[in-house]
């Protein structure tokens, strides 16, 4: 990690003064150069020389404007992505791009961001670069029917793009109003600030509007600006102007691009970031991490909390059975929505418990930091306000106690979503219902169907059912024909029904009971079966009663408790989106109060609270997502409170987008000192679920946004990332081991009561309680579902099950590493060796625009000395102490030219895990596969260092340019036949591609996959003997046999 970043300075643009803070770029991105500068800047010299825009901000402006001169093959103007990290100054960079175009005569610009309040930041940024004459108009202040002024910046939020007016007039929608202001020939700037908010473009109205706007203004100069860019490749869909997919590219559509990248993992994403920089469409720098510290605090649980947690787990298991019983009683066929609600509530409930488990430890840690003269920033995502307001409404606006958010989630699930007759009704157009009529014939009730309309009173209108003439027997039971889609007995069949239903396929019979004498038939029409309704209600009420009892022991709302522990609202600066809170008064009583202050909105309250923190009036700040964009909390040189910030993350955000925004609040430009980050994770195995989500997103984010997966700020969380192929394979092995389908080499965790047999029996029971299918593990037991559901187990059970899962996870990774199949990200070739030189270089220009860069094939001979010299081997031997450790000579001897002396092979054995030994050899250093002592003793015998020295030095020298065959036999058949043999050699040769690889991506990857039978594209980084840096991709991997 120490070499992940290198200091950044503009490589091509040479104007401007240095940035006020140390800025870095990932080692990987620094290894690829941007294109030459051809653009001439119009920004006044006074603005440049005075440092209003720093050199690195000017470089971004120049490259953006240069890219805007390119017209893609689909006739749209190329766009530019600013991926600078939080605090580097994207706002001024964006303002500079607007100013540059304003000076070129393009007087209109669009600026989209996430909040209307950020309009003031936009005005400030323009003012800061001496461009106050460019007016900024807020779209939300302009009526739908009006037209904005003739020039300036039209500032709007992403949500405004989907705004519609119910009234008539010139413009019914905001997007039509915007397009009318721009005109079709618009060639001004469109800024998509915090552009990660437009992710999932095809699945949201907002995202589609972003794409639509770019399509309808093909000549607009588009700039995407965000510290996060896209946390996953699929979220790049809105960046249509980068020209990576579409006409004239290797990928016909975005889906083709997405498939190619996701298929080949993070290595492919690293190529994307590097390729974009080489092509001049992307730049990404961030503040130096010098002085920033990261650590993960794992929090232990006391016995009382474990007991409460275990009670909750048992009640949720009982609730699952009750829900299933109720659904069976009602004959619900479609239960997707029911279980969706159940498991989302289950996850939220235990998330609240995970957070609550850390509150006491957080307060203790924070108090120590406060006593050390620091100030605290606590990051949360959930405020628990919805539950507080529910209780407030239940008590007619009065509240005299702190509320448990966890209890509220559980109670709300049962109250609103417990299986009921209502869930079986289907809303039909025009209140049209199907009438199911039961007709009794020969002691059996038959079902017919007819349609009728229901008036406001609920009475049927229109055509009544025709009753077939059947002879009737008295008595008998109701029977449902085989054609019914019901999965239950008796009258609990399916039909289309009530207009106030919840689900399309969850139907219920709506019938009246009448007697018809026609033909001796009788008809049964019943709206509900009273005994069944009573049963369901009793089951529901029973659960609610148990939840109420448990609720007395559940932890209270975390945010309210934290504020109370730190001394109340007068001591804590709260920057969240909630409107009110529960506080303790001086007399000890508790009440609910509004956060609003006279004459201020909630957003303004957050700004006031920020000022109170920055002036030192308050030393503790609590921020939620509402404050994760646009608020700076760093130890700024311009503010009174310059104490070091300790940023404590109690609740990890659900996505990397939110995580980066929140972490960037305390690490920004112009700070006196860098922050300290502390991530609190409890010992609960299930909580790693939340760490896993963020770690996965941040790993992708680091690769795609900064060209190096190791670059993301919360890198200490990477060990908690289980949502990958190894997690899926590990879960598959766990499941098959339980079923006895395979013999697993990974032993069950030690310490489980009852031993291994009891452990596997216990897992089968746990699987059932988690509603996971052992029989359908391939499709049903996904890693996401497993990590979600494991939260609901008792503490010791979830920890043992999770331990077994992670042991399998680690085993699979270690196995792939040994077999050379592990994707190591960017690999440094010979990091400490200067003997790297270019033997041959061939240049291949790609098709398309000249600015797209070129693909260059470097054939690089690399003097990588894998071997271990005698001095190093002897030094390692001196540290060994076990009786079987030391030097070994082979019984078999080889021929060693030039003297033709016959010398045995030699190795050094070191005790590894278990009974295996790590093996070191003169020619290859550490051998990838460990060996057992029995295997060693069959071929080698133990010797003293003096006996081993000659063989070691001889083999070390000979293997520099000779293969193992020559060492054993004095010659190599392959060499004699004119072929190449690299087996056992110290010197290796590689071939790699460098440059704009995306252009030839598919063809190269197909060839590599065909040759190596692997989709892994190894990205390598090296520095040649001429001190040139290169980053590229292996095209031919050498045979690694020994």
From TrEMBL:
Listed GO biological process terms: cell differentiation; cellular response to interleukin-6; macrophage activation involved in immune response; ossification; regulation of DNA-templated transcription
InterPro entries reported in the protein's UniProt record: Helicase_C-like, P-loop_NTPase, SBNO_a/b_dom, SBNO_Helicase_C_dom, SNO, SNO_AAA
Domain Helicase C-terminal intervals: 542-718
Record-level GO cellular component terms: nucleus
Keywords, in A-Z order: Activator, Differentiation, Osteogenesis, Repressor, Transcription, Transcription regulation
Gene3D superfamilies linked: P-loop containing nucleotide triphosphate hydrolases
Top-rank lineage group of the source organism: Eukaryota
Pfam family, one: Helicase_C_4
Residue ranges with Basic residues bias: 459-469
Biased composition (Low complexity): 473-483
Protein purpose: Acts as a transcriptional coregulator, that can have both coactivator and corepressor functions. Inhibits the DCSTAMP-repressive activity of TAL1, hence enhancing the access of the transcription factor MITF to the DC-STAMP promoter in osteoclast. Plays a role in bone homeostasis; required as a positive regulator in TNFSF11//RANKL-mediated osteoclast fusion via a DCSTAMP-dependent pathway. May also be required in the regulation of osteoblast differentiation. Involved in the transcriptional corepression of NF-kappaB in macrophages. Plays a role as a regulator in the pro-inflammatory cascade.
Stated name of the protein: Protein strawberry notch homolog 2
């Amino acid at each position: 990690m120490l070499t992940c970043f290198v200091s950044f300075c503009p490589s091509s643009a040479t104007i401007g003064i240095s940035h006020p803070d140390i800025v870095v770029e990932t080692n990987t991105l620094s290894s690829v150069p941007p294109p030459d500068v051809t653009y001439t800047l119009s920004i006044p010299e006074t603005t440049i020389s005075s440092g209003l825009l720093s050199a690195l901000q000017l470089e971004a402006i120049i490259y953006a404007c240069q890219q805007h001169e390119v017209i893609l093959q689909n006739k749209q103007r190329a766009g530019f992505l600013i991926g600078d990290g939080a605090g580097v100054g994207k706002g001024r960079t964006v303002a500079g791009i607007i100013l540059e175009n304003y000076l070129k005569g393009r007087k209109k610009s669009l600026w989209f961001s996430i909040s209307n309040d950020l309009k003031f930041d936009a005005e400030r940024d323009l003012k800061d670069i001496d461009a106050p004459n460019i007016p900024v108009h807020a779209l939300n202040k302009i009526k739908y029917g009006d037209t904005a002024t003739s020039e300036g910046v039209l500032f709007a939020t992403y949500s405004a793009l989907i705004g519609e007016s119910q009234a008539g007039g010139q413009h019914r929608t905001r997007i039509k109003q915007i397009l009318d202001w721009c005109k079709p020939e618009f060639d001004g700037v469109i800024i998509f600030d915090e552009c990660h908010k437009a992710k999932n473009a095809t699945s949201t109205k907002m995202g589609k509007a972003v794409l639509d706007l770019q399509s309808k203004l093909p000549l607009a100069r588009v700039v995407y600006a965000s510290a996060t860019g896209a946390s996953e490749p699929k979220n790049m869909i809105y960046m249509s102007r980068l020209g990576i997919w579409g006409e004239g590219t290797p990928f016909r559509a975005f889906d083709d691009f997405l498939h190619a990248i996701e298929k080949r993992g993070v290595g492919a994403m690293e190529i994307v970031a590097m390729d974009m920089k080489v092509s001049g469409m992307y730049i990404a720098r961030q503040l130096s991490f010098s002085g920033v510290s990261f650590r993960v605090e794992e929090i232990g649980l006391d016995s009382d909390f474990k007991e409460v947690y275990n009670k909750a787990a048992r009640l949720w298991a009982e609730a699952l059975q009750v829900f299933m019983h109720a659904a069976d009683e009602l004959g619900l066929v479609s239960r997707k929505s029911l279980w969706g609600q159940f498991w989302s509530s289950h996850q939220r409930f235990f998330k609240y418990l995970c957070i609550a488990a850390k509150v006491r430890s957080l307060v203790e840690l924070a108090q120590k930091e406060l006593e050390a003269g620091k100030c605290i920033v606590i990051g949360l995502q959930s405020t628990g306000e919805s539950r507080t307001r529910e209780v407030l409404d239940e008590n007619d606006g009065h509240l005299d106690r702190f509320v448990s958010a966890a209890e509220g989630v559980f109670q709300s699930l049962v109250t609103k979503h417990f299986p009921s007759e209502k869930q079986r009704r289907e809303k039909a157009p025009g209140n049209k219902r199907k009438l199911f009529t039961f007709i009794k014939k020969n002691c059996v009730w038959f079902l017919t169907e007819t349609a009728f309309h229901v008036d406001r009173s609920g009475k049927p209108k229109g055509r009544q059912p025709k009753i077939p003439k059947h002879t009737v027997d008295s008595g008998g039971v109701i029977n449902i024909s085989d054609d019914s889609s019901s999965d239950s007995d008796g009258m609990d069949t399916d039909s289309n029904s009530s207009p106030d239903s919840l689900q399309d396929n969850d139907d219920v019979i709506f019938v009246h009971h009448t007697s018809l004498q026609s033909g001796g038939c009788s008809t049964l029409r019943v709206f509900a079966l009273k005994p069944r309704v009573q049963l369901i209600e009793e089951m529901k009420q029973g659960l609610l009663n148990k939840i109420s009892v448990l609720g007395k022991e559940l932890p209270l709302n975390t945010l309210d408790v934290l504020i109370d522990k730190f001394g109340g609202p007068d001591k804590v600066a709260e920057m969240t989106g909630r409107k009110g809170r529960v506080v303790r008064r001086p007399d000890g009583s508790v009440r609910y109060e509004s956060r609003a202050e006279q004459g201020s909105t909630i957003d303004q309250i957050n700004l006031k609270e920020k000022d109170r923190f920055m002036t030192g009036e308050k030393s503790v700040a609590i921020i939620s997502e509402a404050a994760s964009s646009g608020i700076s909390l760093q130890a700024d040189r311009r503010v009174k409170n310059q104490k070091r910030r300790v940023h404590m993350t109690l609740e990890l955000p659900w996505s990397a987008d939110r995580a980066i925004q929140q972490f960037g609040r305390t690490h920004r430009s112009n700070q006196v000192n860098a922050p300290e980050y502390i991530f609190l994770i409890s010992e609960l195995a299930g909580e790693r679920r939340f760490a896993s989500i963020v770690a996965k997103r941040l790993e992708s984010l680091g690769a795609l946004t900064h060209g190096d997966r190791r670059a993301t700020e919360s890198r200490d969380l990477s060990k908690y990332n289980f949502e990958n192929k190894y997690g899926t394979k590990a879960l598959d092995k766990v499941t098959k081991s339980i079923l006895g389908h395979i013999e697993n080499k990974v032993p069950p965790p030690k310490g489980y009561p009852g031993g291994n047999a009891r452990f596997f029996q216990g897992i089968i029971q746990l699987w059932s309680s988690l509603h996971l299918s052992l029989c359908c593990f391939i499709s049903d037991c996904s890693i996401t579902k497993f990590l979600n559901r494991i939260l609901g187990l008792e503490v010791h059970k979830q920890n043992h099950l999770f331990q077994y899962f992670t042991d399998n996870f680690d085993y699979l990774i270690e196995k792939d590493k040994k077999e050379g199949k592990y994707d190591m990200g960017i690999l440094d070739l010979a990091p400490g060796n200067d003997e790297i030189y270019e033997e041959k270089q061939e240049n291949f220009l790609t098709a398309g625009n000249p600015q797209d860069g070129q693909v260059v094939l470097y054939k690089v001979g690399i003097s990588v000395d894998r071997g271990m010299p005698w001095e190093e081997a002897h030094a390692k031997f001196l540290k060994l102490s076990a009786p079987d450790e030391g030097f070994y000579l082979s019984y078999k001897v080889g021929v060693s030219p030039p003297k033709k002396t016959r010398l045995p092979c030699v190795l050094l054995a070191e005790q590894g895990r278990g009974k295996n030994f790590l093996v070191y050899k003169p020619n290859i250093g550490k051998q990838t596969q460990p060996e057992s002592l029995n295997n060693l003793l069959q071929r080698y015998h133990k010797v003293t260092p003096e006996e081993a020295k000659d063989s070691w030095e001889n083999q070390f020298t000979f293997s520099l340019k000779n293969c193992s065959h020559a060492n054993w036999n004095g010659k190599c058949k392959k060499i004699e036949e004119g072929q190449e043999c690299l087996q056992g050699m110290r010197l290796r040769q590689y071939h790699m591609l460098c440059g704009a690889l995306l252009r030839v991506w598919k063809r190269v990857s197909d060839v590599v996959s065909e040759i190596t039978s692997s989709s892994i594209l190894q990205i390598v980084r090296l520095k040649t003997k001429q001190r040139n840096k290169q980053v590229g991709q292996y095209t031919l991997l050498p045979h690694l046999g020994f």
